[in-house]
Batch of 4 targets.
Target 1
Amino acid sequence: MPEPEEARTRRRRWRLMLAYAVIATPSLVLGAMRALEANNNSPIDWVDSDFAPRAEYDRLCEAFGPGDAVVMSWPGCVLAEPSLDELVDRLREERAFFAPDGSWLFHRVTSGREAAEALVAPRGQGGEPGMTRDQAINRLRPSLVGPDRSTTAVVIVFTAEGLKQRSRLVAAIRELSLGITGIKPDDLHLAGPVIDGLSVDQASQTTLARYAAPSSLVVFLLCWAGLRSIRAAAIVFGLAAFSQAATLALVYYSGHSMTALMIVLPPMVQVLAVAAGLHLTNYYFNSERSGEEGALAAIRAGWAPCVLSAATTAIGMGSLLASGLTPIRQFGGFAAAGVVLATVILLGFLPPLLAWARVATRGPTEPGESDNKGTAAYVAAVIARWRYAIALLGVAAIGVGSYYAAQIGTSVRIETLFPPGSRILEDYAWIEEHVGPLVPLDVVLTIPTDSSLSEREKLALLWKIGREIAGGDQAGQLGRAVSAASLMAPPPGMTEIPPDTPAEVIEEYLLAHHPLLSGLGVLSSNADSERWRLTVRASALGDADYGALLASVAGDVTAVIDKVRASTGAPIGVTVTGIMPLVHAIQSQLLDDLIKSFVAALILITVTMTLVQAGVVRGLIAMGSNVFPIAVYFGWLGWRGQPIDIGVVMTASVALGVAVDDTLHFLTFFQRGIQRGASPVLAIAEALRKCAPAMTQTSVSCGLGLLVLALSDFAPTRGFAISMAVLLSLALVGDMLLLPALLLVSTRGKHQSDPAIAVQSDCRIDGDRELREVA
């Protein structure tokens, strides 16, 4: 019998699609490799320049120089050590620290030893004496001189061009420092924003190098075990890998680069593609005929739930585009694009490849299926018997979990990015113990050049602010204030100046200090105004509440400034900025993003479900099992009281979208049973028989595949992996227990069954009678 023209056309179309995919593969692989090469991260760069606290911080850097610094110290790094001078000089002179065009890649290099010498040295045209050595040491504590009045540090401030080469430059700094000092590598301690970003880079790249392959292997083995066909598993896994490459290539060819959070993008796209592939392959297995007819049957049966699942998952991930944090926004956009690409690839290639590979279908007569029917019937009977209790417990869990989830806090502080005992945290702890706290909070006073305030009054104002902060509620959490007032000699009280000294002489003496103050980064002047900088520092570690510290300092500063404005009428601008306010603002933004993205995803997915279910009540019931895992897990996190990191924040919206996947497949078979006249209990049994294997396979393979990444040293990646694995497990419980219970409760009085279907399913149901005979 001649082959129908429709079949020949379909085969030609499939072959053409396969040819296009083969042609595109080299470009996709190249783009994926290039995307993985580029990786540049820094927590303070997680917000755009139009983010208000970041804009204030940028203005601070424009006035006083960049804040991207390395703080370096070691045992034996003391004020009396002359090798410090050699190290500083060589950091300023070595060719390794210059760009090819001759520009220096550092903005400033200094040491506590050099700063102390500058304060002691005579200054001014008359060669007035500087501070005594004890005075200088007191002024530099605890920013550049430690509590022992001897241990100090070297501070290296990077330029924007230097930041692009930070990996090479930090390695060169280490090599030079070890060569000059002769210390052991483990004794050299480095901290600061540059080290934060570099450590994030290295941790994320190490995660990918170490765990991407094991994660893929786990996914493949579980896929093989679930499908019981190595050819089917290889096809599903291969198309998932192709989807990964396509998503990464999209990142590269769109001009973006990988961030630390994007490191979880490839494995996540892989497991989502595998999950969709498992469902679609099970549709193929359940078809009556093999070959191309089976492929067509799989497409007809699976395209609607697969497309709807992809749409809801993409909505969940796309809701992250509302974030104010760049890496979350990028992750959400590319993850949504990856889901759409994976769905198109699977629907276009999986069924024909299964047919061409001659993977056999199993149909309704697969050996052992009667056992599966019996199990599904038994579970349906148990759920039907306890439907009210299950529904009540599920709703109660959602309510209690939502209450505690509202108490969640977020953090992007350094100790939330790395595990206890990691090298970067040990370095921070050593430097803060032996030198001083490292997180700066800056108060900038802007005073017009034509202000009526004298130099003496300006310094007195800075001194009063420092004294007010030192006596504030949070004084124990902050180091001593460093400003022009604390770096001047004689002390700002001017008690050493004879009372009959003319004001002009005092002004001239103070003006002579301006070059020194500018060099020390506490004064910046232009034709219109002067900016005077006062800095206090808090620990990067520990449990200091940055919000409380900021509120306390802002209140102290406002109290002093208001008095001066009232008494002198002088216009004085005040800005509180620095790393601490920026980190606090990012933490607040994280919590705001968690709420906004989840609410947006919840609304959009709920609307989608009401349309799919053709009813508001039905849609809300279907959403119950999807909200259940998020409410329970995030409620537990809120009950624990520990802040969550940026990786965990993303999982709420992502998990909501992913959870809908199994729900839609379950509802598809449930509705088909109802439409054929089956009772709700019988429809539940049929849906469990058809979906439970694929639902379990996807949850186990995806959960365990992602859980491999929990071995990472980068806390956000670890948190994302663990959270997704837990949420997928809870989602499986919700779809296999809570969803059936809610459906049965909502369909009370509608238990009319078709005897033919009951016999076909080995299930004898009559009205409200449950499946006792099968059980």
Note: The longest helix spans residues 193-227.
Target 2
Amino acid sequence: MIFSSESFSRWKFEPIPANPGSILPPILPRTLTSFETLGFSLGGVLLWLGTAPAMHGALGIQALSVWIISTIAGVMLNLQVRHLGQIYPDVSGGTPNYTTRLLKAYPAIAQYSAIGYWLGWVSIPPMNAMILTDLIQTNLDPISIHIPTTFFRVLFTLLPYILAFSGTRALSILHSFFVLPAIGLIIAFCVFGFSWLTFFAHNSTIVPMQSASFSLEGWMKWYFMAVYAVYGAETGSSFVADSQRPRSTLNFIAGAAVLLPLVYIAGSWIINRLSPTDATSTFLVLVNSAQPFWGDAAPLLVTMLIASGALLSSATAVSNTSRILYQLARDRYIAPVFGVVSQRGVFAPALSLTLLFSLICLVWGNVDRIIMITGTGYLIAMIAFHLGMWHQRKSPESLWAKASLFFLCIEVTALIVGGMAWSWQDLLLGLSLPFIVRLLSWGMQQVKFAPFQSAWWFRLYQPKLLSEQTDFLSTQVISLLVIIAMTTSISWWVRSTLDNVAASIQSSLLILVLLVVAFLGVAIACWSSLPQVLAIDEAREMSEKTQAELSIKTEKLESTLQDLQNAQLHMVQSEKMSALGQMVAGVAHEINNPVNFIHGNLSYVKTSTQDLLTLVETYQQTFPNPPAVIQDQLDEIDLPFLTEDLTKLLQSMQVGTNRIREIVLSLRNFSRLDEAEYKAVDVHEGIENTLLILRHRLQATTKHPAIQITREYGDLPLVECYAGQLNQVVMNLLSNAIDALEEANHDRTYEEIEKNPSTIRIRTEVTEKNFVKIMIADNGQGVPESVRSSLFNPFFTTKPVGKGTGLGLSISYQIIAERHRGRLYYDSTFGTGTQFVIEIPVLQPDVLT
């Protein structure tokens, strides 16, 4: 599937600055394991098999000088590429796409060289197909059996592409499985051969005694070819971008550099010492070289080495070339369609173009000319790479600028002298091919042919409905029948053919059959059962991913619900405080005016009353014997009592108005509507005002004695806070404490309460962290264990219906924790009591919002 809704989480998209209407190809997900990238990193070492025997036949001992210089260049190239991979870990395609960054000031040269590098690898699958076909024919010649050459060449060319198109990662896994035995064999060939020549060969010397005339033209001609092989050991860089462990992959490139001298110098020295120069076949050259130390096992081991090496280098080429085109499309050097990648990692358009050119090379059929023409582009790429190193000599990208300049000169000379020595026509064709590919890419963007458009590939790989998919059971049965029939037929043919054949030939053919059948079997499975298995695995991963997404969404919904509840609480609290403040302010205002009038006039009433009583007393002294009518009136009103009671009445009225004024002041202080919302206040004053408002609930009644208040106030500074909200918290905690005490006293008699009085203790102090701590404790029944975890939850209450809303503690927690950056917690022992603790900073860092 390509860019399906399920695949977006695996791919990272970037905006395109040049064309807002298009989308960049996705960055590759890091799916390749270290073991898989190890195989691709070491696969380039096996290219020695295709070049060394031919160079040995042409140059003889001079071939060693070619290999020594080119190997030094190859080792330095690997280490330089490894360094660039650390700088560009997300660049796919490796060396040619690093070159485009080194030569970004010269985009035409960068594009030309990158396409040339791609062309160099395009010819590898058909060239190996010809080598494998010839190898099979060589082993069958002793028994006079001839195979259909064209069929086998096409089959071996298509095999790695079939695996790559399947999108099951089978190509990289199969490559990794066979690469270690192949590398092990080539190392064993070099180590055993060197040891045999050093310690056991009696008629041979380590250093050849014969001399050969030096030819610059011949030397450059084969350096031209050596570049094609020895420089190819850096292919691991192509897979850094989609490696799970890119650092390990880069270290494998350094490991391949270590193997280069052993294989290319020691191995070439061995075949120069042990194989005659008239041997032209790779198989015969290696068998002749290996027989002295491997004996009769040489044909078998060499067959396995050549077969596995050819198949593996073809797999490396197919995997490498598609990534080169992909990155070039990302960098806008070629048509965007080549950047299309399926969810399973299939570079379908890039693979299609590479397959087309591979088949063209196969139809051409001349291995030497194919290597010459496509190798020209590869050599141009290496020239551009070293040119980029010299161009960036003052930047961190370049490690050995002078060495790069030295090898650049050698490569330019090899291109001109060596290319002309091979064929000037082929040289010109090789130089023209990158332009032809660029022209083809440009034409694909101009022609409105559906497969040239990315949208066509999007639709092609859209997820299919279950009803549209092939029946799974039928597919497996048919695949099993095909594999059984193929295996039985091949086994029958091999058995009947090899009955009268020598054991050595039987073993070699068996190795070939095993390797070929292994690749064919995996190829069939890749297009039958493996996609189904992969689909099941993807469905499982998608299910797990969906479960994880649902879990995340559930958590987000729960968090949103909690935020919503908090917002509701905040609104309720704000509206409650606003309404309460306005009501309190209104009531206080309405009471305050008449009370002030009464309180202000009481002093005048007291004075006037005293004057009247003084006047009455003066009359009594002046007229001690009043008339009977007046005396009767005096007796009726009981003037002495009236005089005494009136004075006391006025004093009581004075106390009452003072009390009303204090209550009004407490209400105003509690609401704080006439002051700034945020300010430094006296916490103790707020506590006392709250106690005054709650005084009616603290006083004694006929059912219980008064609740005792114990004050243990510390020396507190003024505290920056929202005074009205802090008073509300103290009010909630004191009210809950009173409720708890009333509930605890419900089953106790008046006398029992007097013996163990209900008490609320209020204690304040300043902590070492400059926090004010307010502790409100009661000696009620405490909080039951079952409800402690829910105590601060919104709408949770243990009170009877109509007595509590479940918002008091939740709002209080919000006010302290969120508005004041403090803490509200409690400590309770069931049966003993509960203590709530408020902690807020004395100074807030900034004004809270």
Note: The longest helix spans residues 529-622.
Target 3
Amino acid sequence: MTRAQRANHPTGDRNHRPGPDTATRTDPPAQRRPHAAPGRTGEPPLPGAPGPRRRHRRAPGHDRRRRREARRVRRRALPRWRRAVPTWRMLLGTLAGGVLLACATFGALYAAVPVPDPNAHALAQSNVYYYADGTTEIARTGAVNREDVPLSEIPLDTRNAVVSAEDRTFYRNQGVDLKGMVRAAWQNVSHLGAPGRAFQGGSTITQQYVKNYYLTQDQTLTRKARELFISLKVDRRSTKDTILAGYLNTSYFGRNAYGIQTAARAYFGTDAAHLTLAQGAYLATLLQAPSAYDVKTASPANREKAVARWNYVLDGMVTLGFLDPGTRAGLTFPDTLEPQAAQGLEGQSGYLVDIADDYLTQTGVLDTATLKAGGWRITTTFDKPRQDAFVDAVKHELTAELDPAARPRTDTDVRVAGASVEPATGRIVAAYGGPDYAVQPYNDALRQDNQVGSTFKPVDLAAALEGDRTTQDGHPITTQTLYDGTSGRTVVGGPSPYSPPNEDNENHGPITLRRAMMRSVNSVYAQLGIDAGLDNVRRTAIRLGLPDSLQGMNPDHSSMTLGTATPSALDLAAVYAALANHGQAIRPWAVSALSRPGTREAPPLPGHEPTVAVTRASADAVTDVLRDTVGPDGTGSTAQALGRPAAGKTGTTDDNRSAWFAGYTPELASVVGLFREDVKTHAKESLAGTAGYERINGGTFPARIWTAYMGSALNGTPVGQFDLQPGPGNTEPPTPVSQAPKAPKPAKPKPKPKPKPKAKTTAPAIKRPVAPRPPVATRPAAAAPPAPVRPPAPRPTPGRP
């Protein structure tokens, strides 16, 4: 602005503060200077000249308040939904505050949680098992079997195998592995509900050692939090060798062995210092699932998992650089010793404890380590009088007739599997796993490696009666439907060719499903399973109570219909109990109460709600047929001596490798299986020649044992009647069957050796008396053919599996 302009401006010269370097266009060029801040030119101001122009200074924070107020005004102008979204400043502030709070909390907890003294694991209480009355003891177990050894006596290969199996970051982590915990949590969530999927824990070796040595096995958030902070402190205070030694000396390896030393003796009969690489890798394998991965007692499926886990451990050793690939390739799976019974489990006690432990662990009530830690009071469902009756029945009906000295090739290694379940409740009241747990520490009641043969046929019939199933020529399937009973007839419509012969290759011609069950005609029920749909048969078997992981349940094989499945005696008892309960299945259970002194609350036990396996009409129709199977003309006629309403089915497998009888009354369902196996190789052997008999069928020793046991178990109880509603078309008509089957041929006894003489009665005698009553278990069909002449009991009858 020039001087003339300022003169004419309304404000005049009030706002003009000329400085020493002020110049106008009217000034001479020599007086014009570049603009410079006062005092920076090094020249003093001219005398009388005005000072430098001063800017107005606002109060501190004025601009910040003005900007903040402006932001508030702008935010209030936004829509309501937009105002609900926090700004980045809010998020950043909250995050920073959270991080600071978490760090402060972590530091406070780290300082507040001390490393405790070691727990009193060496003084752990025994587990006490009671019969159903809650006062009679079965056994005491759980004493800690452990012998500590220094790390120098544990081979390096064994130590490396454990690191490969349990914590591959052990030598790098600081006691915890947050990445591993997050990964395990993700795996558990992403595979939630997947069948056969085991949950991952994410715990390091240090954390497991802290749990075993300082804390308890309680599954609580408080214990887990303490475990984390103590692990961090222990890792700082102790060397990795000290931690690894403590872990190896406190871990549970199965067979009641705590620590690597007792595990080496239990599985390989040697000290830990002498373990081979393959043996050490197997012991490392056991840490994940000690009982399930014991290859001497595991099911076939678990045996495969154990071998796969062993390979996983060795492959991990190669990955970590502990083992070279050439050595790895030359390793073979090691052989283990037979399990030895723990003290106090002799007689039947060990078998009952096995069933109770299996129930608690399989249902997830307790894990194996928590159970074996001891201190539990377990009330089982086993009824002592009935348990004793089962043992007596086996001794009197079978063992008394065996003579290993006279017949060493046929009367040795004969084994019995048995189970008894209440249909209305699912309660396991008795079981037979072997003669003495101290002598034979295998529980035959739980083993799943024996085919059940024709005892599977009721499952075929139940599946065929469900829905609108028809024969190959379109006729609806009922118990009175006619089928072709020609021996060796090839099934029609099956996934694979199958031409099963009947017993003694006998042709039965046209025969109803009812009489085919009575006579156990293989050709009929092989075709029935195809007509019912093998997938449907498999689903029906699983709903009734068979595990879905059983071998021999593949619907791609037509032979599945005749009992290639390998359920345990307890599994099969569950199926027949469901049929007795009008199609309502209840998973058998073995524990009624669980407590632990010193703890506030024990884990809850599962409920026992029934599920609909098949409709009542189908289940009752099967029961109606099975009543005839134990009638005078059925393969299970031996069971008539029970003197009560009963239903059942016999079963015999190829080469006479096993024989079964499964049956029930309205009150009780029981199963008895008989087989032989080599004591060293566990290979199945034929029952032919046992006790001097040419052939052992389900209607002989298994049916005799079943009848004797049921007579004692039900003695003195009211006689129950079957309340059946089989539905239309599933009852026997008043007219005789058009094509009656041929009468069975009498058995030809083996001339040498001669069996012990028996009283010539139509059924074996029961050892305990049963109150006499009119027979009601069967009803004769009108104009039925006369009963065939039968040999003296208990001679096996050919043609009646």
Note: Residues 22-26, 34-41, 193-199, 734-800 have pLDDT under 50 and may be disordered.
Target 4
Amino acid sequence: MQPGRQSASLSTTQAGAHPDVVVTLDLNRDARNVALLGTKQTGAALPPGLVGNPTIAATCSFDAINRIISGRADTDPCPREAAVGSIKLDVAYPGVRVALPQWTRRLYRLPTQADEPAAFGTTVLGYPVKMVAEGRSDGDYGLTVIAPRLPESVYLNRFEATFWGVPADHQGPGDLWDGILSSRGAKDYMYFGGPLAGAPRKAFMSNPSSCTGNPLSFDLMVQPWVRSQLYSETVQTPAVTGCDAVPFEPSIEVRPASSVAGAPSGYEVDIVVPQSDDADTLSTAHLKDATVVLPEGTAISPPVADGLQTCTDAQLGLDSRDREACPFASKIGTVTLDTPLLEEPLTGGIYQGTQQSSDPASGEMYRLFLTAAGSGVRIKLRGNISVNPATGQLTTTFVDNPQLPFSRLSLTFKGGDRAPLVNPHSCGEKTATAKLTAWSGAVRDVSSSFAIDQGCPTGLFAPSFTAGTLDPAAGAYSPFAISIGRADGEQDLDRLTFAFPLGVVGMISNVPLCGEAAANAGTCGEESRIGSLTVATGTGGAPLQLPGRLYLTDAYGGGAFGISIVVPAIAGPFDLGTVVVRGAIHVDRATAQITIASDPLPAIVGGVPLHMRAIDVRVDRPQFMFNATSCQRQVVGTNLTGTGGGTATPSHPYQAKGYDRLPYTARLKLTVGARGKTKLNRTTPLTALLTQPVGQTNSKSISVLLPRSINARLEALRNPCELEDYRAERCGRTGLIGDASAITPVLREPLRGNVYLVRNPARRLPDIMVALRGQVAIDVTGIVRVAAGTFQLGTRFNTIPDVPLTRFRMTFRAGRGALLGTAQNLCAKQSRTAAARIGFRSQARGLTRVFQRLSTRGCGAQAAKATANASAKAKAKAKAQARASARAIAGGR
């Protein structure tokens, strides 16, 4: 190429105007004015935004073009409307010394092959010269016009190509002609260069609509036949101006395929940019940036993640002309692009891009890839979806789009149960907005509305509920299952409270409790895991199933213990983080009933509204949950709240089976007296020790009537603690009469506490209240009665929790404020053989009464000897009575 001899020019620099574009190539020549090397191909890369619209022209074949140039045809072989420009040629034959004159040829629009956006051609000395226009899909999407194969035997000295801005101004008869060597014998149809009468003035070439102030660059290139090297030179034309005059009036259309509230739905999003080929108006500015905000409520639908894959940037190949290699399972829709530059629209796909952030508002967590191809053109765009983490509203942005004209870009997102989008859950008119920015700098705010008017929410909240142990065998270990369901259109679940049946508890002692920090972070160890769960999220017929884990934790939320519900929100290819919901485990102080109350459930995770449809929980840690031993018919109760303020209290029946086959061998030992506390009218201590092996039905009530040798002291009965003070744990020493401890295999440590007399407004005499404290707080209540005349103390504990107790000890203290006193000398023979009347009632059987002789302490050696000499008959009678009582307890009769 002759340095400095290449050039390009535009007949106007008005942005959006329709210039004649002239490109000149001047090659190095020898002394004979013959190019040093034969040219194989030549071309010009036009600046981005400078485009031609070949569809305004007719087409002509090479055969017809040859007949024009040869002049052999009587009539014009090509329609004049097929010409879009001209070329001036200076060529030579290397072996011929005669100089060949320069001549001008019309450039015609040729019929295209399937992979050609546009083709133009003429002939040189009978040889066809074809030029193909290509889009630079691997770069700035500008156009490159290339003549890929010139005649090898003809050397190109100089080449000047002109593409007409308005072909109708040059297609008619004029001063130019395209015959061979001379004009002698030229036919009329061979002349051109003037206006074509009656032809519509349609624009072919259009200037860019971007006014950067920088010159426009043309990259001109030549490749000789004998070398593979490509020679190039960049030339420039003045910058385009006047962008403020370029029209830009886009619009947007958003249409859901379904108008059912809250339903997964296909969506169509169209961006319309009106185009005109009128040569007397400026071309429409090209779209640079597009930001589309869907109406609040139109959100990502969780079920789309089921089976979804994503496309990587490498698979998209944004800077490659190759077809995208995105997985089929990453395709979530289709693209149709109508452009005036091509006869047929471009078509392609919408692909889900890989996640590159955990922040839904960043635009990098959810990404869209658009591809469209056809007629040898391939366009790839990368967009970002910013999601409001609080509302789930979607904002999609595509920036720096190609400087190419289009009349309609249609994005169609797939529908069905696994549609990527879900409709708003409320009815009414919904409006999508868009901010569309042109390369000219013009900004237009547009909107589109649609109606959601079917399946409108009723505000109902009637969730389904089932629960219970999988194996209801009384006292046996069994997983415990809970299932909650909700129909589409109902309020979402907000808070969950479960009340377990009495006696259905977990073996807390077997589980290391997860600490507060780990529980809140969702990082509890497997040693604290007690179960699993599955959460079904999303609307439609195929909600997304998310597995999770359930952990037992330290005290939380005012409860004795807590739970940490951990659900890794791994939705197909998306990692939305870890969802942690805490809950408090409350233990009723009177019945030991377990109640679990959750914190509010999350409504949106990672910007995706969950709309939980079902929650299935399995507390399935081995040897953890076990059944009640009671024969009582019970229910698993709930108190469920919805996000709209609705409440529901569904329940499910529960009854343990096989309770009558459990043994019951509880034993109660009573020990009275101490050194100096056995004589008449003294305060005296008394200890009750209850023992029972594990694996039996539990006690329900126990009553004790002490013998006449022991009476209740009125002074203590008249000075109880008030009930409200007891509940607030501020009795102090008021009403304090003893202490107690309890050992249960359910807890790791024994429960311990004080015993009080507490005034009960419902009864004449105060109650005996045992305040057991430890990992849990339990209050055991004994109803007191005093026999008239004898002042014998009777106590009935008739609300003992259905929980296994291996050892329970309660001691009434002697001294000031003591409850018990001696009505006889406890060391006397009659007192030492006295028996208490005891009634046992298990959770599964009726009442059994036995007489239990008290063990006396503090009598000394003489009294012990006297007792040893008691009649053998009395001893035998007592033993027989004890054996009969034991048989009665074991048999439940």
Note: The helical segments are 62-70, 313-316, 516-521, 714-717, 723-727, 829-832, 860-868, 872-891.
